[in-house]
Amino acid sequence: MSGLRILVPVKRVIDYAVKPRVNKAQTAVETQGVKHSMNPFDELSIEEAVRLRERKHPVEDILAFSAGPAKSQDILRTAMAMGADRALHVVEEKTDLEPLGVAKLLKQVVEQEKRNLVILGKQSIDDDAAQTGQMLAGLLGWSQATQASKVELEGEMVTVTKEVDGGVETVRAKLPMVITTDLRLNEPRYASLPNIMKAKKKPLEKKTLADYGGELGKRLKTLKVMEPPARQGGGKVEDVDGLIGKLKELGAL
Amino acid sequence: MAPPLRHGLLRHATTCLRQSHPISAPKLSRHAAIQRLLSTLAVLEQRDGQLNMSSLASISAAQKLGGSIHGFVAGASIKQVAEQAAKVEGLEKVIYVDNAAYDKGLPENYAQLLVENIKKGGYTHVLAGHSAFGKNLMPRAAALMDVSQISDITGIESEDTFVRPIYAGNAILTVQSEDSPKMITVRGTAFAAGAAEGGSAGVEEGVDPKAECSTEWVSENLAKSDRPDLATAEKVVSGGRGLKSKEEFDRLIPPLADALGAAIGASRAAVDSGFADNSLQVGQTGKNVAPQLYLCAGISGAIQHLAGMKDSKVIAAINKDADAPIFQVADVGLVGDLFEKVPEMTEKVKGA
């Protein structure tokens, strides 16, 4: 059997701990001067890819990919510090690509780089779309396993336990395959300083959208971005009787 | 300065009126014309020959759009599910495909099945619930149709404009789509499911492309419970890290939930620590709930958790940390030790 040639797409997003603010013009969320980091689900993808190699599966190489502004380089370096072998960066400053556009881009990367396993996060925590992996699998005609909490490999057969409503479901498919990660899949490692230094020497290839030709433009138009209606805390009560009384008053009991 | 300005405003207002009057009539009929052309396919879920009632939210959402609505079901011995669906109010027709190959809803062949039936019906909109099934299936089908998908909508402004939360619910996006059909997943708690009785839709067999499925379904392990379903429950009692152990979670939370007739939820911290099953997680990466009452104990209120519950009608919190962020959103807060307060509450609710 030939080895695993893994593609791990990663996205640079506003750090999960930051409370996003809508800009004054109500056109987008303010990103200037806000801490960014790797989408948490993508850290799980890298970690899983690296663990496959550590579990002695024949991994040929792990390619980290990102499409986005120049600063996305930082998270590609992080991915390499965590164990990815090399990185590919499609530099695009202006357009926020939609999942369909990213999926089309990834399809080309998969074909050019002869990948046989793609591991993505189940969703990015900024647009919360949860689409890219499924779209990619559809475009490639590959098997898909979403919201994976366990991935087992035996030869070319992949068995994935998935988080579904009310419990878990297990599916099995032959490579090539697209897997999206759920939080329960693993505990991503911290990149150690020596590994961060080593990652600086790993190859990072830069391309542009033009290199991929094709129509990756936007289909959806943002009309407005607003703050959600603020919820006012209703104050505190002294004891359990007060709590029950207030709940009755509010018609909740 | 004031009088001319007022005049100006008045003149402006009258011109507006004069202009808008003749336009308003054709505008209305144009709207009606659009509504007549709309046709929605609502993808319904089934399990073991039972229609999944929470998937009916896609029908409620479709009713907000206007136009005709067809339901879609597929699986083994599906006819009875189709007939059950035909009674749901609002449906004109139920399309069914009877084939055991679709029973588990695997997207590798189900997406192709859906695409063929969308093409045949010429639908302008395709809606499914933003459930594990809908999330798995719809983007794949959207890609096959070469359209962008709009996920987890909470509002419909017009036939091409939709509202959805982004950034864990910290911003609300209004988005317009020119794609056709519009592939959409619907947040169940934002569109109350309509009546499951009273409809009389026709039942019709759909097309079956019999696409191969490259994935094999192996097994499932679902948490069995007599309690109301978390996603649709009227009341939810949720526990967090503050419960300290699975034993304490099981000792304190279920009795209070039972006393209230509530479903049980949990924070990510509680799930990660093994206090509660994954399927009970409420939040950005778990379930979204919007019950009448969300009562939580030992949950601090991280933004990822708030994302999943802040649309609840009434939020009540018990926490010993008076500065916990949960108190900023709670309608009623009780600062105290949950190990005392929760059992006391259980007893008092039971006694009431």
From TrEMBL, chain A:
PROSITE patterns: ETF_BETA (PS01065). Binds 1 FAD per dimer. Binds 1 AMP per subunit. The electron transfer flavoprotein serves as a specific electron acceptor for several dehydrogenases, including five acyl-CoA dehydrogenases, glutaryl-CoA and sarcosine dehydrogenase. It transfers the electrons to the main mitochondrial respiratory chain via ETF-ubiquinone oxidoreductase (ETF dehydrogenase). InterPro entries: ET-Flavoprotein_bsu_CS, ETF_a/b_N, ETF_b, ETF_beta_N, Rossmann-like_a/b/a_fold. Heterodimer of an alpha and a beta subunit. Pfam families: ETF. Residues 26-216 form the Electron transfer flavoprotein alpha/beta-subunit N-terminal domain. Its main location: mitochondrion. One of its GO terms (biological process) is fatty acid beta-oxidation using acyl-CoA dehydrogenase. GO terms for molecular function: electron transfer activity. Keywords: Electron transport, Mitochondrion, Transport. GO terms for cellular component: mitochondrial matrix. It is found in: Mitochondrion matrix. It comes from Salinomyces thailandicus. Its cofactor is FAD; AMP. Belongs to the ETF beta-subunit/FixA family. This is Probable electron transfer flavoprotein subunit beta.
UniProtKB/TrEMBL annotation, chain B:
The keyword Ribosomal protein does not apply. It holds the Pfam family ETF. One of its GO terms (biological process) is fatty acid beta-oxidation using acyl-CoA dehydrogenase. GO terms for cellular component: mitochondrial matrix. Gene3D superfamilies: HUPs, TPP-binding domain. Binds 1 FAD per dimer. Keywords: Electron transport, FAD, Flavoprotein, Mitochondrion, Transport. It comes from the Eukaryota. It is found in: Mitochondrion matrix. SMART domains: ETF. InterPro entries: DHS-like_NAD/FAD-binding_dom, ETF_a/b_N, ETF_a/FixB, ETF_alpha_N, ETF_asu_C, Rossmann-like_a/b/a_fold. FAD binds at residues 241, 267-268, 281-285, 298-305, 319. CDD domains: ETF_alpha (cd01715). Residues 40-221 form the Electron transfer flavoprotein alpha/beta-subunit N-terminal domain. The electron transfer flavoprotein serves as a specific electron acceptor for several dehydrogenases, including five acyl-CoA dehydrogenases, glutaryl-CoA and sarcosine dehydrogenase. It transfers the electrons to the main mitochondrial respiratory chain via ETF-ubiquinone oxidoreductase (ETF dehydrogenase). Belongs to the ETF alpha-subunit/FixB family. Heterodimer of an alpha and a beta subunit. This is Probable electron transfer flavoprotein subunit alpha. It comes from Salinomyces thailandicus.
